[in-house]
Amino acid sequence: MTERSRRLEPRTASADRVVKSVCPYCAVGCAQDVYVKDGRILDIEGDPDSPISRGRLCPKGSATFQLVTGSHRIHDVLYRRPGGTEWERIPLEKAMDMVAERVKRTRDETWEDTDVNGLNVRRTLGIAHLGGATLDNEENYLIKKLFTALGIVQVENQARI
């Protein structure tokens, strides 16, 4: 064994904490250990305490580190204005503000306090949500709570397909 080999240690050895997480890629819900030092992610590994994955990750789950830290990660959004023919790059924060403004405007414009029979419904039928299979139970719970608070009643998930 060389001197260099003797000095080698895993990236996880210098972490100051381990944060539990769930892989975002599919509905299996493989648990992950996220190794963090000084607020930066050092590595992401399978959680050996997980009864689902027992510390194993598929190739996509194993690449989660690059998903959250890679230099190729996109921080802008492509946007095409109504009637436009070209895409323009805008900051993610601006795109999120635009989505929030449109949700608020649509909710305000389509709000119903009562239905045609005079029953109190306090809802909007102008917004619907269809979730995907990559959302875990906690994310679906929070989405349902948010949309219910907004008065959105058409909330569905295709994970069972």
UniProtKB/TrEMBL annotation:
It comes from the Bacteria. Transmembrane segments: none annotated. Residues 16-72 form the 4Fe-4S Mo/W bis-MGD-type domain. Gene3D superfamilies: 3.40.50.740, ADC-like domains (2.20.25.90). The keyword Amino-acid biosynthesis does not apply. Its cofactor is [4Fe-4S] cluster. One of its GO terms (molecular function) is oxidoreductase activity. SUPFAM superfamilies: Formate dehydrogenase/DMSO reductase, domains 1-3. Keywords: 4Fe-4S, Iron, Iron-sulfur, Metal-binding, Oxidoreductase. It is found in: Cell envelope. InterPro entries: Mopterin_OxRdtase_4Fe-4S_dom (IPR006963). Its main location: other. GO terms for cellular component: cell envelope. GO terms for biological process: anaerobic respiration. PANTHER family: FORMATE DEHYDROGENASE-O MAJOR SUBUNIT, TUNGSTEN-CONTAINING FORMYLMETHANOFURAN DEHYDROGENASE 2 SUBUNIT B. Belongs to the prokaryotic molybdopterin-containing oxidoreductase family. This is Dehydrogenase. It comes from Pyxidicoccus fallax.
